[in-house]
Write a structure and sequence with these properties.
The protein is built from two helices and ten strands. It has 162 residues and is of the alpha+beta class. It has one domain (4-161): 2-Layer Sandwich (60s Ribosomal Protein L30, Chain: A), CATH 3.30.1330.200. The longest helix is centred in the last third of the chain and has 15 residues, at 109-123. It starts with a strand and ends with a strand.
């Protein structure tokens, strides 16, 4: 049986087989997996907010924001042998967990997180091979670097793989 490496909120980590990597509690947050299928290494970030400019402090958790988490994850993957040109991405989350009377853009955190992750991945030239984003239900995801499958358990909808 393989060991599961857990990634908390505003957290990230990397794995090699036989380990898998999992995060839970993806509501408006986005879970992003970057993997090198040649080296069989993978990393996951649990991103809470789209832009580090939203942070109020000089010192902040880089794993919390789309614009900084993906750079940090990339450097951790390269440190264990991943090649940037071989990296691919899968992502899930970005739900709209609550309905609001106004159409205030600030309340669309899930959609803004998804857009920020996609923008950053484009900047890094990392293709997104699969995604399961949006909706209004929370998700738990687990990635296996050996099979390259992302298992997604969505509240009230069951499980699927991408």
């Amino acid at each position: 049986m393989n060991d599961v490496v857990k990634v908390g909120m505003a957290d990230l980590n990397v794995v090699t087989p036989p380990h898998t990597i999992r995060t839970a509690g993806l509501g408006s947050c986005v879970g992003v997996v970057l993997y090198d299928d040649v080296k069989k290494v993978a990393g996951m970030a649990h991103i809470m907010l789209p832009d580090s400019a939203l942070g109020k402090k000089q010192e902040f958790n880089r794993a919390k924001y789309a614009d900084t988490a993906l750079d940090l994850l990339l450097s951790k993957l390269e440190a264990i042998g991943a090649k940037r040109y071989s990296l691919k991405a899968k992502m899930a989350g970005g739900a709209q967990m609550f309905s609001f009377a106004s159409n205030n853009d600030m309340m669309r955190i899930g959609q803004r997180n998804v857009e920020a992750v996609k923008k950053k991945l484009r900047e890094l030239s990392i293709p997104i091979l699969a995604e399961d984003v949006g909706g209004s239900n929370g998700r738990t995801i687990e990635f296996n670097p050996e099979t390259k499958r992302l298992s997604i358990r969505t509240v009230h909808q069951g499980e699927k793989e991408i």
